[in-house]
Design a protein that fits this description.
The structure is a single chain. The chain folds into three domains: 1-102, Winged helix-like DNA-binding domain superfamily/Winged helix DNA-binding domain (Arc Repressor Mutant, subunit A, Orthogonal Bundle); 123-135 and 383-489, Aspartate Aminotransferase, domain 1, CATH 3.90.1150; 141-377, Aspartate Aminotransferase, domain 2. The protein is built from 15 helices and 17 strands. It has helices at 15-28, 41-47, 52-65, 142-154, 158-161, 170-184, 197-208, 223-231, 248-257, 279-291, 350-360, 366-377, 380-409, 433-442, 474-489, and strands at 68-71, 75-78, 128-129, 190-194, 214-218, 235-239, 241-242, 245-246, 262-265, 295-299, 324-329, 341-345, 415-416, 424-428, 445-446, 448-449, 464-468. The protein has a seven-stranded mixed sheet with strand order 4-12-11-10-9-5-6, sandwiched between helices. It has a four-stranded antiparallel sheet with strand order 13-14-17-16, covered by helices on one side. α6 (170-184) packs across α12 and α9 (248-257) packs parallel to α10 (279-291). The structure holds pyridoxal-5'-phosphate. Pyridoxal-5'-phosphate binds at residues 133, 196-198, 222, 266, 271, 299, 301, 329, 331, 336, 341.
């Protein structure tokens, strides 16, 4: 240990005892842990402005009392056998009569973990991980990326490292602007970089919504986005879905009857059903939004991973009114721990968002943006995307062929639509979904059933599971799926395996 901050009680004399008592206090409060080495007498003496012999006497006193032990007369450490973890848990803490501080939390329900997705441990800790949107991090080119990261430090652009430039670094924004124009047809929008798209959802909620505003969301959808809207006091209104996407008639009735402030959509690979919203429906939704003065958030979270054709250009690419807010993330292209995402927005919205962002966080992490900017500039980013798209495509095809083979030989076929892209498949397992999820929990398999994606679970049936196929090798995918299909095969389910991929209110 190099430094130790001690709290002195100046009423204690002599000085060596004052030092000894403050170290004892640090041990009792958990600041110093059993087994931990103390600073050398020379160092501590310097820190507490005492003579080295005074500190040595303090240490000897604590050895005599049993708080410290000395290691071969060279170093001192806290007695390993002390039954102390920290003052919160120790009834013998410094002031046993002190009651725990009572926090007065804001009435905002989000100070509690309200229905936060589920109470499973993180998906990657399971042996088989069928989480829907998980990239295979073992295939990320960390070594290659390190070059761009270290280059950002070796040749730092100092203007970026100061405060200011709250939207993001020039290099990253330039690269992203060019990429969006060429690869996604998005132009004439401002880019604001965020620490992952969740931050954008929160920021947008705070800036656009007033308590009581209605936000229309897909009735099977992305709970973290819903919670961001709710944190600003919004009321969520479900949009009816069907096998091809959004029920336009129902949406039309909804916006005519109810004042809607915002529509949140995942048009490319609907979350969680993975359905690609057809062009005609996108246009119809845009027209409705324009007529009724509604903003659209288009969450395009895994754009590149589209297999059967080029991905359709985002709604934001044909947005004459500037009402589409486009969100994208690097959590699937790279890894969620990178916390990098951005929104492409109409210029008129930029000032409000930047003002608010600076209250939350002056600016997003510069180092990551610089490294990714250089990665893109070198063309290595697109190379990585091509490689991963190919691998995920193969994994999707493998999963589909395994399911088709199962359906050929089983009396209990499973119903699904081949996803045109994305990282998951929405599988209809009839009324087996609940039992299957429980079985998976018990067998080290991460799998979520439909109920976790429903806006109104009480009013909906639980008939589907989301099979993420991107995060595991083909062999592992096959093994894990084998266990799942064995379960389905050996368990009776309702006769009417749903003919629908989306089956809810
Ligand atoms: C619909 C949707 N949006 C966004 C994200 C990514 O969020 P973030 O960028 O905050 O990691 C995910 C990740 O699972 C998602 O499923």
């Amino acid at each position: 240990m190099t430094s130790l901050v001690l709290q002195f009680n100046n009423t204690i004399h002599p000085r060596f005892l004052r030092i000894a008592m403050s170290i004892k206090h640090a041990i009792q409060s958990g600041q110093l842990q059993p087994g931990e080495t103390l600073p050398s007498t020379r160092l501590l003496a310097k820190q507490v402005n005492s003579h080295r012999h005074t500190v040595m006497t303090a240490y000897q006193e604590l050895i005599a009392q049993g708080w410290l032990t000395s290691i071969e007369r060279k170093a001192y450490q806290v007695n390993q056998d002390l039954p102390i973890e920290n003052s919160q848990q120790s009834p013998n803490s410094v002031n046993p009569s002190a009651a725990t501080f009572q926090w007065s939390l804001s009435p905002n329900v989000f100070t509690k973990a309200t229905g936060q997705r589920h109470d499973k441990q993180p998906a990657h800790e399971f042996h088989y991980n069928f989480a829907g949107g998980q990239a295979d991090l073992s295939l990320f080119p960390f070594q290659e990326f390190k070059t761009y990261l270290s280059d950002s430090l070796v040749r730092p652009d100092l203007t970026e490292f100061y405060y200011g430039k709250p939207a993001g670094t020039s290099l990253f924004i330039e690269q992203m602007t060019a990429y969006l124009r060429k690869a996604r047809g998005i132009m004439n929008k401002d880019i604001i970089v965020v620490n992952g798209s969740q931050e954008a959802l929160y920021l947008l909620s705070q800036v656009l919504l007033t308590p009581g505003d209605h936000v229309a969301v897909e009735s099977l959808g992305y709970q973290p986005a819903w919670q961001a809207f709710q944190s600003a006091g919004a009321v969520l209104t479900p949009i009816k879905q069907h096998n091809k996407g959004i029920d336009i008639e129902a949406l039309t009735t909804l916006v005519e009857r109810q004042s809607i402030k915002l529509i949140y959509l995942t048009p490319l690979h609907q979350y969680p059903t993975t359905i690609t919203l057809p062009i005609a429906e996108r246009m119809a939704i845009y027209q409705l939004a324009a007529q009724h003065n509604i903003a659209i958030i288009e969450d395009d979270y895994d754009h590149e991973f589209h297999y059967d054709s080029q991905p359709p250009t985002p709604m934001a690419s044909d947005d004459p009114q500037g009402l589409v807010i486009y969100l994208a993330t690097f959590s699937k292209i790279m890894f969620p721990g990178g916390r990098l995402g951005f929104m492409a927005i109409d210029k008129t919205l930029t000032p409000a968002l930047l003002h608010y962002r600076q209250i939350m966080n002056h600016k997003p992490n510069v180092l990551m943006q610089q490294a990714v900017g250089k990665w893109m500039q070198a063309g290595a980013f697109e190379r990585h995307l091509r490689k991963m798209t190919k691998i995920y495509h193969q994994r999707r095809d493998h999963l589909v062929s395994l399911l088709n083979a199962y359906n050929l030989q089983s009396l209990k076929p499973v119903n699904f639509i081949v996803p045109a892209g994305g990282m998951a498949l929405w599988l209809d397992v009839g009324d087996n979904a609940e039992a299957l999820e429980t079985y998976c929990d018990q067998n080290d398999i991460y799998l979520l059933s439909e109920k976790h994606f429903q806006l109104n679970p009480q009013k909906s049936v639980n008939h589907h599971v989301r099979i993420g196929f991107a995060g595991m090798s083909q062999e592992k995918l096959q093994q894990g799926l084998g266990i799942i299909l064995n379960f389905i095969d050996s368990h009776p389910h309702s006769e009417s395996m749903a003919a629908s991929i989306v089956e809810h209110v």
